[in-house]
Design a protein that fits this description.
By secondary structure, the protein is of the alpha+beta class. The protein contains 13 helices and 20 strands.
Length: about 450
């Protein structure tokens, strides 16, 4: 069924021509005529692409090594991580890793390769493995058994737990009791212990095996507070970057939704993660409270700074007014950008008169303050890239800066390069990407009650 829902590019070309013809016939009845499509041949000034291919953007690793984004693993092997967390400042100090095996697969080969990969990135490791069988246990009994085992693991005091889960757990969140994945995540997060979940099918599939190592290891290091890499060249648009998000979830037994203010995520001029701040309350409506917004920008830290704030979706209610009032009071400048994901028009490339996938980094300038931007590359069998719509807020206010939309587009694109838990670029810039993930966890009742502020990316 999934295969049948994917539309080939050749078929898309025919469909778009048909839709245009139908629209033209309908609009003719009202005296309107359709012109040519908006394309770079007739309107070159409306389209933008980075001067350097985004995958060639230079990243900075340890020991001052610079390597292209497309060669992250090489950069980590040759230079190590850009910044080691204070706990691991001594390279000889091993990472204590507990492996929790809940599926019927052998892990010796994987653990050995994992240890070798960590060593190649200049980290020693110490592994302890705990295997338990969930056969003949009901879902409820399995969750109880897992809770018992996780409590026992606390005597070992691991710094991260790798949990290998049965394939059947992938869709268990739809069930009333929830999944082992989020059960373990919650138990460990409340103890300030990082976790990494891996499903058994990824170990049995040769195509996934190596890829898992490539992505899991940088993610492990980042979850423990290390910074694998940052942008080699500072972003000139602002001194720091913040992401804001409210996540919504439909109520299962009543009408309406539940809302949670996810977090503030703060990044520096080179895209380096600095810290997060969580709001430990569910909120009503779509508007982020004034008190929380003011808490994002302490005067001591932000006075005299230029801060770019991404809002996932639209700024609501008095958010803009409240932010600008506070910025003026503490003496900083703001750039406010709405980042929308839904109902965005598609962009296409055209090859030999056939629609093709848009190149990553392609943007359409709608106006001097708004653009549509493609941030991902999607294979034809998966569908077509969903662009983002970026809108720069403008107003006559001394604390507000409205830079050129092209500069905002380039900055946004580069901020998608900093996902330390995956080699593939996310669709969203990292300040917004993380906020959304944290909100989803909060709505599941999973959040670090003792870690409302911190400097480790536990959500990766």
């Amino acid at each position: 069924m999934l295969k049948q829902t994917k539309i080939l590019y050749k078929e898309r070309t025919k469909l778009l021509a048909t839709y245009k013809e139908e629209a033209e016939n309908a609009l003719n009845n009202y005296g309107f005529e359709l012109g040519i499509s908006i394309n770079s041949r007739h309107y070159p000034e409306l389209f933008w692409q980075p001067q350097v291919p985004i995958e060639d953007t230079p990243l900075l690793f340890g020991n001052g090594l610079i390597s292209a984004q497309s060669k992250i693993l090489t950069g980590l092997s040759r230079g190590g991580v850009y910044r080691r967390y204070k706990k691991f400042s001594d390279p000889s100090r091993p990472i204590r890793i507990t492996v929790l095996n809940l599926c019927e697969v052998g892990l010796d080969d994987f653990i050995q390769k994992l240890k070798e990969r960590l060593k190649s990135y200049k980290f020693e490791s110490l592994f302890v493995t705990k295997s338990i069988s969930l056969k003949n246990l009901s879902d409820t009994q399995a969750r109880a058994k897992v809770e018992e085992v996780v409590n026992e693991l606390m005597e070992i005091k691991p710094e991260i737990v790798l949990a290998f889960l049965p394939q059947s757990d992938r869709n268990a969140d739809e069930e009333e009791g929830g999944s082992l994945y989020h059960k373990i995540y919650d138990l460990l997060l409340n103890r300030q212990i990082a976790s990494q979940m891996i499903y058994e099918d990824t170990l049995k599939n040769p195509d996934y095996y190596k890829n898992i190592l490539n992505q899991v290891v940088p993610g492990i290091l980042a979850k423990l507070g290390n910074l694998p890499f940052v942008l080699a060249e500072p972003l000139e648009i602002a001194d720091c970057f913040i992401g804001l998000d409210i996540s919504r979830q439909s109520k299962t037994k009543l009408s309406g939704t539940m809302n949670a203010c996810a977090s503030m995520r703060l990044y520096g001029k080179q895209g380096e993660f600095i810290r997060y701040l969580l709001k430990d309350t569910l909120i009503q409506g779509e508007e982020i409270p004034k008190q929380f917004l003011e808490g994002l920008l302490p005067k001591k830290e932000f006075e005299g700074k230029i801060v770019l704030i991404y809002r996932d979706g639209l700024f609501c209610g008095q958010e803009v007014a409240n932010l600008l009032e506070w910025a003026e009071a503490i003496g900083c400048k703001l750039i406010l950008v709405e980042c929308r994901k839904s109902n965005i028009p598609r962009l296409y490339n055209l090859v030999n008169k056939i629609i093709a996938a848009p190149e990553k980094g392609l943007a359409l300038r709608i106006s001097s303050t708004e653009a549509v931007l493609v941030t991902t590359q999607v294979t034809e069998k998966m569908g077509l890239a969903d662009p983002l719509r970026l809108t720069v807020i403008t107003a006559n206010h001394p604390a507000l800066i409205s830079p050129p939309i092209e500069q905002v587009v380039e900055t946004t694109l580069k901020l998608t390069l900093l996902h330390h838990g995956a080699l593939k670029m996310p669709r969203l810039p990292m300040p917004v990407y993380g906020a959304h993930k944290m909100a989803k966890l909060r709505l599941r009742g999973i959040y670090p009650s003792s870690m409302l502020e911190g400097d480790r990316q536990f959500w990766l």
